[in-house]
Automatic annotation (TrEMBL):
This is tRNA uridine(34) hydroxylase. Gene3D superfamilies: 3.30.70.100, Rhodanese-like domain. PANTHER family: RHODANESE-LIKE DOMAIN-CONTAINING PROTEIN 7-RELATED, THIOSULFATE SULFURTRANSFERASE/RHODANESE-LIKE DOMAIN-CONTAINING PROTEIN 2. Belongs to the TrhO family. It comes from Brasilonema sennae CENA114. Catalyzes oxygen-dependent 5-hydroxyuridine (ho5U) modification at position 34 in tRNAs. One of its GO terms (biological process) is tRNA modification.
Amino acid sequence: MTIVVAALYKFVKLQDFAQKQYPLLSLCQAHNVKGTILLAPEGINGTVAGSRQAIDSVLLFLRSDSRLADLEHKESYADDPPFDRMKVRLKKEIVTIGLPGVDPNQQVGTYVNPKDWNALILDPQVTVIDTRNDYEVSIGTFKKAQNPQTESFGEFPEYIRNHLDPNKHKKVALFCTGGIRCEKASSFMLSQGFQEVYHLKGGILKYLEEVPESESFWDGECFVFDQRIAVRHGLEPGSYDMCPSCGHPISEGDKSSSKYQEGVSCPSCFDTLSEDKKARQQEKKRQLDLARKLNQ
């Protein structure tokens, strides 16, 4: 059975967000849907996976709330379950930037459809910025894009303040995995005096889904936050594994490094892992290997 993976988000005022937690969790569990959904006063964000009927039921439930009636989602597919459990979490923000005044419900940049993205970033007057974290950028990005080299999205405002000037950078184009970080990023940049801020509607995932590879300006694979690790054009599964200690993607080249220990460490975290953490990961791997031998 093909598993449907649905990514969704919407910035909308949800003052009763906490009251939605348990009904939503119960519905997902009843339909054997797994993944994570975040609820906050500013909206909803999540990725869930399940059967076609199950995902349709969850989307119907969410859209039955008039505030979420126009909730958009993006779909991809997987042969194996990309999540182990279902979580519905309450948060202060559905994507954390740490600046209470930044509100996409109040102001946001100009959306650009995937079919129009190439023309925009070809414009020599446009500064293209990847709003994702450094480990995500490392496995794929758009040609010409700047990498802020952030470890978390909360560092993005500082990068903009230090490296961009509203008087010099007249046109800025932002992109991220599914579009949600760009909503916050564009809202922040507008508050800082930038006049023309564009962002890729639906994010990289929508671009890889709609733009033919022969016409694509994307280079590499796109990191995703589930057990697929990465996807390619057409949202086909990628070639990376994930380090269980630090969460960074692991390439075949990384596996040839002396700092790579399967199930324990990778070149990104080997030098910073404590001996205690390494020992715990080694024990966890031993138990997993034993379980596989017992076919559990």
